[in-house]
């Protein structure tokens, strides 16, 4: 029995198999919706903004 996962966009059951070219999504539409959300910065990977703030002062400030 193939593994079934939920589509991250619509929660529809999706069989996890190599023939499904949109996995883990159920369709190209759901894949593109997710891609658009990343492009619009609606999703993000948690990070340490305090670290970024501290280290940004160490960058060389050059005129371009």
Explain the overall architecture:
A hairpin with a 6-residue loop joins strand 1 and strand 2 (13-15). The protein has one domain (4-56): Erythroid Transcription Factor GATA-1, Chain A (2-Layer Sandwich). It is an alpha+beta fold and 64 residues long. It has a two-stranded antiparallel sheet with strand order 1-2. The radius of gyration is 19 Å and the shape is elongated. It has helices at 28-39, 49-56, and strands spanning 4-6, 13-15. Helix content is 31%, strand content 9%. It contains 2 helices and 2 strands, in the order ββαα.
Supply the number of helical segments. Answer: 2
The amount of beta strand, in percent, is 5-15%
Number of strands: 2
Whole-number total of structural domains: 1
Radius of gyration, whole Å: 19 Å
CATH H-level homologous superfamily name: Erythroid Transcription Factor GATA-1, subunit A
CATH architecture: 2-Layer Sandwich
Tell me the major beta sheet.
Answer: 2 strands, antiparallel
The overall pLDDT average reads 84
H/E series: EEHH
Anisotropy-based shape: elongated
The assigned structural class equals alpha+beta
Q: And the CATH topology?
A: Erythroid Transcription Factor GATA-1, Chain A
Terminal CA distance reads 58 Å
Segments where pLDDT lies below 50 for 5+ residues? none
CATH structural class: Alpha Beta
Organism: Endozoicomonas montiporae CL-33
Subunit structure: Interacts with GyrB.
Keywords: Metal-binding, Zinc
Protein name: DNA gyrase inhibitor YacG
């Amino acid at each position: 029995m193939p593994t079934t996962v939920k589509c991250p966009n619509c929660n529809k059951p999706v069989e996890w198999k190599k023939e499904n070219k949109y996995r883990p999504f159920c369709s190209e539409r759901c894949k593109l919706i997710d891609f658009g959300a990343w492009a619009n910065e609606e999703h993000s990977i948690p990070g340490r903004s305090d670290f970024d703030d501290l280290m940004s002062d160490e960058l060389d400030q050059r005129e371009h």
